[in-house]
Specification:
260 residues, two-stranded antiparallel sheet, nine-stranded mixed beta sheet, single chain, globular, alpha/beta, Stationary-phase Survival Protein Sure Homolog, Chain: A, 7 helices
């Protein structure tokens, strides 16, 4: 029997990225798409606990899929507990835009879905594709300018390896970032601290009242061994991620500060 995969994303069920992942995985696994009905980027692990969640089975590209009116984490939870899929693995992506550094994995809906899956007992792998123009992240994800050919090969190869060997026991999620132009091979990395120079732009509406846009340019590079540096070199970044956010190295110092 083929292994089973729950495939989700944060760009929405019509995104070409999720369909590229489906095409890569369908020959090697039984793939069920359970994904947000609409664009849900940057929602992190947000869960809909104050409103009902509607999930509808629809046909896209000749395939029956589940369209969830909620967040990526909602889609994962619906797939695991309402649909009782019991997948071998949860795959999230292919995201349009890289998910690198501390700040991105904390806000990424792509990563949020993979982390939620692992938290619920099924390991997750997240895939993201670098964009040359950051504005591409905000275009219609069902009609992006990205070429997914290289990313599809990475998705299939990485998932085949994970299905054969299993995700490393000390990792909960594998975060995979594919450069827009792949020049090298795989590089196992750690998270860089930042991906963007954070900024806020103040504007005035037609009535002269202020409003704000959070923005900022990309970090040009980061230190050797980080995910940001690997992508800048054209390598595929493989970052093992853990759900445990405990700062173990700080424990002894904390005990000294907070001793009775």
């Amino acid at each position: 029997m083929k292994p089973s995969i729950l495939l989700t994303n944060d760009d929405g069920v019509t995104s070409l990225g999720i369909w590229a992942a489906y095409e890569a995985l369908a020959p090697i696994a039984d793939v069920t798409i359970v994904a947000p009905a609409t664009q849900q980027s940057a929602v992190g692990r947000s869960i809909s606990i104050f409103e009902p969640i509607r999930a509808n089975q629809i046909t896209l590209n000749g395939i029956r899929v589940w369209s969830v009116a909620g967040k990526p984490t909602d889609a994962v939870i619906i797939g695991l507990y309402a649909l009782r899929l019991a997948p071998t693995l949860v795959v999230s992506g292919i995201n349009i835009g890289e998910n690198l550094s501390f700040e991105s994995i904390m806000t990424s809906g792509t990563m949020g879905a993979a982390l939620e899956a692992s938290n619920q007992g099924t390991k997750g792998v997240a895939f993201s594709l670098q964009v040359e123009d950051q504005g591409d992240k905000f275009d219609d994800p069902s009609n992006p300018v990205q070429n997914f050919d290289a990313a599809k090969k990475v998705v299939r190869d990485v998932v085949e390896r994970e299905l054969k060997h299993g995700i490393c026991p000390h990792a909960d999620v594998i975060n995979v970032n594919v450069p827009s132009v792949v020049k090298g091979g795989y590089e196992v990395t750690r998270l860089a601290r930042k991906l963007f120079h954070t900024g806020v732009e103040k504007r005035l509406d037609p009535r002269g009242r202020p409003y704000f846009w959070i923005n900022g340019p990309l970090i040009e590079d980061a230190e050797e061994g980080t995910d940001v540096h690997a992508i800048r070199k054209g390598n595929v970044s493989i970052t093992p991620i853990t759900l445990d956010c405990t700062a173990h190295a700080a424990a002894e110092e904390a005990k000294k500060i907070f001793r009775r």
